[in-house]
Amino acid sequence: MSAANPFVEVGHRGGLVVGFDGSDPAWEAVRWAADEAAHRFCPLLLVHAHLTSVTSAWGAVAAPGWGPAAVFDDTSLVRQAEENVAVAAEECRRLEPGLEVDVKVVGGRATPALIEAARTVDAELLVVGMSHQWALPRALIGSTVTSLVHDVDRPVVAVRGGQVGRSGPVIVGVDDSPDSMPAVRFAAGYAKRHACELRPVRDDAKTLLEQSEDAQLLVVSDRGDNAVHRALFGSVSHTALNHASCPVAVVPMPC
């Protein structure tokens, strides 16, 4: 990070990483991430996992005679991805003048690309757009968001259309154990930066969803439940991601 840039703090971690694929939810995520990066005085990295002849940006597509990891070089697709993410980067600079914005275009699936980018720059958090069509039981579908939440070692913020620019409090799920403290610290930092109310709420899905209706951010913990339990019964974090009325930050437990 450049010490000359006013949006970078000395000793700060590597800023924010946001996934971008040109969709409406991705644009919402980019706008939310630009605002948050400006409030954090840190750089923003836009990652575009572009389509290839066999592998889509959001999931592998099988083809006869080829494994799911097969990737073909397609110059036109790469060029289109570079143009799309460049437009998004310019929008970030327009919204937040002086913000340090960089881009990265990679071939393949979005989840590993975002995880690798976040680890490479030691990102403070990952931001992704989430389509309303993903509001289905996790046992029936998969998504970049749910994969990231359970595979990455840092907070993930999921943003849907119409959720950017909301006012209201920051809601954080709490209980009587120290497990919720990372989420509380994350929520407190956000509330301080955005000069808004911090509202702790008992950590149950129904109450959190009700409170999210007038909130600008909902913060929950990822308790690392085993995969079978999540598939059969869901979790607070999964329910929040699928049904909350505001952006959702899922904060992992310390390793």
From TrEMBL:
Which residue numbers delimit the UspA domain?
17-160, 205-252
Q: Which Gene3D superfamilies match?
A: HUPs
Pfam families this protein is in?
Answer: Usp
List where the protein spans the membrane.
none
- Family to which the UniProt record says this protein belongs: Belongs to the universal stress protein A family.
Protein's recorded name: Nucleotide-binding universal stress protein, UspA family
The source organism is: Lentzea albidocapillata
